[in-house]
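Rather than argue in generalities, we reproduce a single protein record, letters for residues, whole numbers for local backbone shapes, just as it appears below:
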Amino acid sequence: MAKEGAERAEETEQMIAQEAGPEAARGAGGGGGAGGPRAADAKEMRAVLLAGFGGLSKLRVGRRPMPEPQEAELKIRVKACGLNFIDLMVRQGNIDNPPKTPLVPGFECSGIVEALGDNVKGYEIGDRVMAFVNYSAWAEVVCTPVEFVYRIPDDMSFPEAAAFPMNFVTAYMMLFEVANLREGMSVLVHSAGGGVGQAVAQLCSTIPSVTVFGTASSFKHEAIKDSVTHLFDRNADYVQEVKRISPEGVDIVLDCLCGENTGKGLSLLKPLGTYILYGSSNTVTGETKSFFSFAKSWWQVEKVNPIKLYEENKVIAGFSLLNLLFKQGRGGLIKGIMDKLIALYNEKKIKPMVDSLWALEEVKEAMQRIHDRGNIGKLILDVEKAPTPLMANDSTETSEAGEEEEDHEGDGDNKERMPFIQ
């Protein structure tokens, strides 16, 4: 074990030296001046910077001071970062109590342990890990408390590991901790082609005789048809389609859309059924935050009458993994869930679906893709990937008119979007 740890540490040091350049490598060996320019560079890192809330022009890649681990923290050399819809909402400032800018976005990553803070046990330099981070994940190096760090299974790649924590923990908690999924139940999940949607479908397949109803853009149907029992176009009248197949409705509704879908979801619940809201993507339309769209979406939310819930034996709930982790101190609970999920992965019962890999410099185009609901599975920022030449000009002219944008958003020019390149 000690020999293994030493070999991993040596590999990590070699990687750092290669990335910092030959001068830094010489400095590490004692032959370089500590005050030279490369020594200064070695204390900095590349990161995605959000200068202020708003459109894509607020994002750029720059250099930041490299963090060092505090007590009970791990320092991780990042290999890959997960990109989630919540990151788009953060960029717009479309969340409660947004942090101050400038900031480095991102909440999950995978990489190699580079240093240990005081009182850290159970990890060694060189360990392959995935982690939750309270912002600042989209960078070459992150530091995060050890309670938010988990070992990567041997046959899981770094991009898969960056696609794993947020999606699968969210799906597992909603299905099993909140809604108590059991054999023979039925589930309706929106955005079935996204990262959480696919995690939900895979976890449902681990329980006998679970029926999964899903909505997704029609172009995704061919790719995900085998993971969902009944698949509907996201713009179709899915309420009538579900009732045609299951007149009593469904046991669980997982809603990341909000707006008018809240009332529809509640109407589809069977007695003792559970509706869970875990997002509000319908509030996002144009490139920047729109108070009109936000107000319209919430105006469409059906007013919940507790007496009606009581009479109909229905449950309405909400779930926010980030709040559970970083505001409500449930890291220990999440650690137990991750252990169960990693066991399911090792049994080959679940596997994260990666849509595409993007360089840090391509973060705007990656956000464009997730905004347009173009992804099937998870988008990943690959820290070591070189940007595609077409995207390397760091254009700020990209339009971000989503599928649901309306004419009144005031984006009349509708510039042509940059093409997606795998």
